[in-house]
Batch of 4 targets.
Target 1
Amino acid sequence: MTADDPLTSEVIRLFAKVTDRYTREYEAAAAHHGLTPQQVKALIALDEAPLPMRRVAERLGAEPSNLTGIVDRLQNRGLVERRPEPNDRRIKLLATTDAGKAAAQDLRSRLRFASDPLAALNEDQRRDLRDLLQLMTEE
């Protein structure tokens, strides 16, 4: 299977189209809130549950040292806060504030390109797509 194969070429073209549209939508949603795409990713990850900095960095594929600046800027805007971990006070958890939760909810509502087409798929199709994407992204 090579890029010269018509099916492979079509799949690559479709991936590029999806990626381009998703990137444009993501950047527009971030800009609406005066955030960078990385700040949006961090905010949405934290909105699910408070997490240690290391886990957020893993989710974003970022180094913890780079994440510190992202989190500092989100904290300065009142969107996230650092909390002590109840079972180990040496660990700081990152969590969204009420303002951060509202911003994350608004951001999700603006990111329709990704969710609308997925809604057209039934649950089995979404599972199949997820499994194929996981297979393609395994390292």
Target 2
Amino acid sequence: MSDTNQGTLPVIRQTIELNAPIQKVWEAVASSEGIATWFMPNDFQPALGNEFVLETPFGKQPCKVTEFDPPNKLVFTWGRTWIITFALQEMEAGKTEFTLLHDGWEAGKIPESGMDSAEVRATMAHGWEAAVLPRLAEYVQK
């Protein structure tokens, strides 16, 4: 798996170890209720090809499930170019390794916002690391 996309900006890759069994983590990352708790409100349905909406701070964003492999991997498109991967690996008793990949970073401006892709990528990388993934950990480790 490459950490770059078509020679543009690097993929955001973040991995955390969760003190929770893989099935509990899967339910948190592959259900509408779970995703809403630690990420964003949505109308996600757990099925390959499902089109859903993430209700972001910047408005509703269209998404589509492109890979669905319970309880190991969920991949979906987000907006025009982004690809989000949630990969889970069962570890020793009761622990799960969770890897997030945020791909699809084209150089230049993001058409929907007019913002520079590199700046948005840096902001998103920080947000995943500092806010979103810690909320996931808090949610599944209760």
Target 3
Amino acid sequence: MDVNAYAAPAAGAPLAPFTVRRREVGPDDILIDIKFAGICHSDIHQAREEWGGAIFPMVPGHEIAGVVTAVGSNVTKFSVGDHAGVGCFVDSCRECDNCKAGLEQYCVGHMVVTYNSTEADKVSPTYGGYSTHIVVDQGYALRIPDGLALDIAAPLLCAGITLYSPLRHWNAGPGTKVGIMGLGGLGHMGVKIAHAMGADVTLISHSPGKEDDARRLGADHFLLSSDKAAMSAARNSMDLIVNTVSADIDLNRPMSLLGLNGTMCIVGLPEKPLSVGAFTLTGQRRSIAGSNIGGIRETQEMLDFCAEHGFGSDVEVIAVQQVNEAWDRVVNSDVRYRFVIDIASLND
């Protein structure tokens, strides 16, 4: 079936109307009428070929929320009318140890990314959520709980799970002290989720103007990274820091905030290699680690958790015709905290 979309025709070119050919609904597939698609900074990196390996024309979008309008003959997880979402991948090898463990995001076979990738045949390109419809295997779709509005749910499929997974893995909760570095699309979800988990939450930022928002979102403390006295006073005080910053920064000072056996988990993606001194790590047996989105089971758990606690992402809804302007604003950090495209505007 042919569907309306917005695509980058070439690296760095403005997005423009495009027609996508979606496969017919197979026995294990569902058809989703996309209502909202979140804008992730990685959409911009890939469409501008800043990470290499780009496939054009490219239809970005891996924060997809909509309504199921058709189901295949073998489908048991969804019915027509259900709210459903699609995140950063739409298939994987299903055979490696990671896939079998429900950690499909770490597939070592062929993980089929939602866009800028190829299907299981390794030939057919994938197209993302800046489009009116998507066909996906039921095993790689997520059920969006009834109490979660689709516009604020869409960014959870990337930004939400990117923070939920490390917070869960490192056991954030009552009695733990968690730092969130950066208050953007990722960081604001980190503050919300860590607070809902019951952790003592500190937002670490170089922007003093973000303190009020940090506390509104659930931070118990605000730490200005340029305040040397405050940073010194907070040394050795945290169990976990989730670093959402994508700028190139010296990690030694924020790492010193970690206490014995503390971990800094990297989820932001700076261009240059990370820099941290050996003494910073050895002094308190500190660790530095990374985390990448989440598997299907954990992502569903995250959606249910957010619905149970009554929150989604803070969003600014735009028409698709505003997407190029919105991308420029994302690059300039001029959004609080996630743009979401109203896909109905694709038919205007």
Target 4
Amino acid sequence: MPEPEDDSPEKKSRRKLVVIAVVALLAIGAALFYWHSTFTEDTDDAQVDGDLYQVSSRIAGQVIKVYVEDNQEVKAGDLLAEIDPKDFQVALEQAQANLANAEAAAIQASVNVPITSITSSTSISTTGSDVQSAQAAIAQSQKQVAAAQARVAQAQANAKKSDLDVERYGPLVEKDVISKQQYDAAVAAAAANRASVLEAESTLIAQQEAVRQSQQKLSQARSTALEAVKNGPSQVKAQEARARAADAAVKEAQARVDQAKLNLSYTRILAPTTGIVNKKNVNVGANLSVGQDLMTIIPLSNLWVTANFKETQLEHMHEGQKVEIKVDALGGKKFHGVVKQIGGATGSRLSLFPPENATGNYVKVVQRIPVRIDFTNLDQENSDHKLRPGYSVVPIVSVK
């Protein structure tokens, strides 16, 4: 015979509690589902985006050192690679020598302005002639000083170049790429150029002494001068124009020096921002051209999410709403953000060939709108820098 069911009050009470618990759980689940479907919008068509910094060469040259590898973290200003600076150093020294020549010419032109003023006067006294002679002597001496300075600069540049030639020829003669006679000729040329530097410096000292003596004579002549000599206006204006042209030449030469300094600085390729090295495409010995891409720097401090929501999800969505972002690659780790912008057109309308629906076979397809979501606490939530551009995410927007 079947045993009679236990209908004790305790048994009935337990069954009632179980029923109540099940009903409560169903109610909570229904409430959560209702809240989620009513007050949030989410999509799995979303990815992390970020800026990409292309690092390229601003000059042409041969790479002598590379300091980074793919996926290496770098800071803004870190040295990434170096280009051989020797040619650019020589170019700078040549530009500086040309600047010295231009400055010497400008000094000569500026000195000739008062000389022209004196020589064009219609009448001078005996003491005035003495002043004129002394000024002419100073002008000539200063001209010679300027010329001597230019020769010193040119001789120093030549000596530097010949020393570099000897340095370059040394390994070549050891490898029999060039003859010993060629190497000896380069050594002799370097010695001759160094001797020319000494000779030019001696001449400069002598000319500077001549200037000092001429200045003493001018001081004596001025002390006894009885009349001032007036200039011929047209001659003075012409000489002033030449002086202005000489000053312009100095500015041009200075600009070339500045450009040479810039080119020399470009031999050190620096990181434009803090981030991760990617797509490194440079090695030691490579000959670079101007504008050639070397690598990409991906900054990890300026990331955002591009989420493609269905147009039916945008009714209550607007800028400023809070977003919870789950990252698939990080085991569903949550980040926090805010709706920054809602796209101005659908993805299909922005495609290269937008759809044309002029035929009678039109089928309505729900379109997707790109929405930009900015992270609000990225520095702390991504302190380990594991979040990278391209990761798939699930953003959940609170639209309540």
